[in-house]
Amino acid sequence: MRVRSFAALVALLVLIPVGQASAKNAHKGGELHQYAERTWASFAAMTDPRSGLPADILNSDGTTSVQTSTTNIGAYMWSAVAARRLGIIKQRELHSRLSRTLSTLERMERYQDTGQYYNWYDHRTGEKLTVWPPKHDPNFHPILSSVDNGWLAVGLKIVANAVPKLHKRAQALYDDMRWDFYYRPNVNRVLFHFRPDDPAASPCCYDTVVSESRIVDYLGIGRGQLPQKEYYGRWRSFPDTCDWSWQETRPIGVTRRYFGVDVFEGVYVYAGRQLVPSWGGSMFEALMPALFVPEEQWAPDSWGKNHPATADVQIHHGLVEAGYGFWGFSPANKPEGDYGVWGVDGAGMDPNGMPSNEDNTLVDHGFAGCPGREPKPDPPPSAYTNGVVTPHAAFLALRFAPAQSRANLARMASEVPGLYGKWGFRDSFNVQTKRVSDAYLSLDQGMIMAALGNALGGDVLREAFADRRLEEALRPVIGIERFGP
After folding, report:
1. Residue 25: is its pLDDT beyond 60?
2. What is the pLDDT of residues 314-363, one digit of tens each?
3. Rounded to two decimals, what is the model's pTM?
């Protein structure tokens, strides 16, 4: 596979304010532009007209959840910028919508002087949730999530850089957010989340680099609030020793040193491809940050290799290994309701697996040389019953496998009844029964809008987020790494 180049289009559009790109360019994508129009319609339907906050979930009957998260709010903001660039909404509507969102954010409760928001709010009012709707959950505690605040910060920075009239307000909220708050120097990593009511119960820490949470590394290093070495505090793969033989695949690799940190550059060999695995083998762990940061350009010997390999592995699993006829595996709403986690098990480090199907078909490639860890035969395609595919995963691969992604999405839209409609793609479907999720998740719709905004709008969101200041701070850190042996 080849990385799709947008260089010529970017050169034409980079200096044009959001919304002034020609309609001709915006409509070149054909069915992609229609996907964007309908996906944006789901955001319009799920966003409260008074608070300007999107709900976490939009149901097919038009009802919504009470709750929203900081990630959802960030996704709505960057989706609005993408919608304007593609000519779906006008400049006046963009200003009106995002001004309302910023007004609510400005009054929402944050934690002390950190600028960090709590994770869950009532999307109708902006009030912090202290009880999980619709019923009391004794295990629910208001928390500050590092990665969810990270995605909110991405949205704020995009608004600040792409919408001049709102620059000052969005930039002020962005500047208030402190990333050193989550840093734990003893392990050189950032917290999953912080519990204000019981700080000792705050779980530590994000430990894999192929994770959506690396956006926190980028924000913190870009702001000078995290040390450069923090990026190298995470595992690429876990080590290749018998102490770590619970992994389903034995990695190969070498140790290299960056910023004083020894890093085992381990990779899994999967279907003949070398891949730095994520925890669960899902698409959004690997590719969501690349919607906003040109990782494959700034780090060609690491992400430049891994991103196309990730797309390739997902395609291979869906079409060959499991024989589903479709591909795209990532956490999503289950076809039967509630939330589920899906991935390519052989491309993840989780020993319990994030499978691609509801029947939990797993692989175990063993750990050669360690007692009791002999390889087991891979399951045949017939074992992969009740596979679950989520459309947003195919959109995430649009840059790295454009033809395959478009063909996959076209098959989904035409062959799975009820999956694609006035609000775009529903969140998932069962490839065997063709049962379709009843929900649209704002997070997943936001990833779709980001992928389409970039593909059709001259990398509008990358240009707005990965500005010169971020490049000067981050590129020297990530650009020196080489994945694998």
Report:
1. no
2. 999 999 999 999 999 999 999 999 999 999 999 999 988 899 999 999 99
3. 0.93
Which residues constitute the domain of residue 224?
7-478
Tokens describing residue 245: 């033989």
Asked if residue 483 is part of any domain, the answer here is: no
Query: How far is residue 158's CA from residue 167's CA, in Å, rounded to a whole number?
Result: 9
- pLDDT for 69 beyond 90: yes
Which residue carries 């780090």 as its tokens?
299
Name the maximum alpha-carbon separation found in the chain.
66
Residue 166 within any structural domain of the chain: yes
Task: Give 258-263 contacts, CB < 8 A, sequence gap 24+.
Answer: 258/229, 258/232, 258/480, 258/481, 259/227, 259/228, 259/229, 259/231, 259/232, 259/477, 260/229, 261/188, 261/229, 261/232, 261/233, 263/232, 263/236, 263/481
For the chain, what is the domain count?
1
The pLDDT score that the predictor gives to residue 134 is: 78
The 3-state secondary structure of 83-148, one letter per residue = HHHCCCCCHHHHHHHHHHHHHHHHHCCEECCCCEECCEEECCCCCECCCCCCCCCCCCCCCEEHHH
Please check whether residue 44 lies inside any domain of the structure.
yes
Q: What is the CATH number of the domain that holds 327?
A: 1.50.10.140
pLDDT given at position 27: 43
> In the beta sheet, which residues pair with residue 110?
117
Q: Within a 13 Å sphere around the CA of 238, how many CA atoms are in the beta-carbon half?
A: 19
Does residue 345 lie within any of the structural domains?
A: yes
What is the distance between the alpha carbons of residues 169 and 153, in angstroms, rounded to a whole number? 13
Confidence of residue 31 (pLDDT cuts 50, 70, 90): very high
pLDDT of residue 28 exceeding 70, the answer is: no
**Contact yes or no for 428/390 (Cβ under 8 A):** yes
